[in-house]
Write a structure and sequence with these properties.
Mean pLDDT: 81
Structural class: mainly alpha
Order of helices and strands: HHHHH
Number of helices: 5
Helix content: over 70%
Number of domains: 1
Number of strands: 0
Largest sheet: none
Length: 132
């Protein structure tokens, strides 16, 4: 009788076509967009150097990548800190923005982390270019 009350299957974990939920995906899913952004930024920098200087100098490219990476780190930290309770209170008082919410803070932290990861990849590519 007790067994008849239990569900016969669990659709969330034992199904054959089980796709992982968004929160179950590995860290590689989170790294896709920042890595792609870093690759695209590097290719754009190479094209800009090629068009302006008629050659791609490793020193110039690494300097540009370091600059962009540092700037991106600063922007990522700014995005993450913009939704803290104290910053939200200041924005609400001065600019009439929406009050602080935990969801907005989590969303801003995720966006900030993506900016910081992409910037870290740019800096790593800059180190790679400077050694070659």
């Amino acid at each position: 009788m007790i067994e008849s009350l239990k569900p016969k299957y669990r659709a969330d974990s034992e199904s054959e076509n089980h796709k992982p939920r968004r929160h179950e995906r590995p860290a590689l899913g989170f790294l896709e967009k920042p890595l792609l952004a870093a690759i695209i930024a590097t290719l754009i920098d190479c094209a800009a150097l090629l068009l302006t200087l008629r050659r791609v100098s490793g020193d110039s490219l690494s300097l540009i990548l370091f600059f962009e990476g540092g700037l991106g780190l600063i922007v990522g930290v700014g995005i993450s800190l913009s939704s803290t309770p104290s910053a939200s209170k200041i924005g609400e008082t001065l600019f009439g923005t929406a009050p602080w919410s935990r969801d907005a803070e989590k969303r801003a932290e995720r966006v900030g982390w993506k900016w910081m990861l992409a910037s870290t990849f740019l800096i790593l590519v800059g180190f790679l270019v400077s050694t070659l």
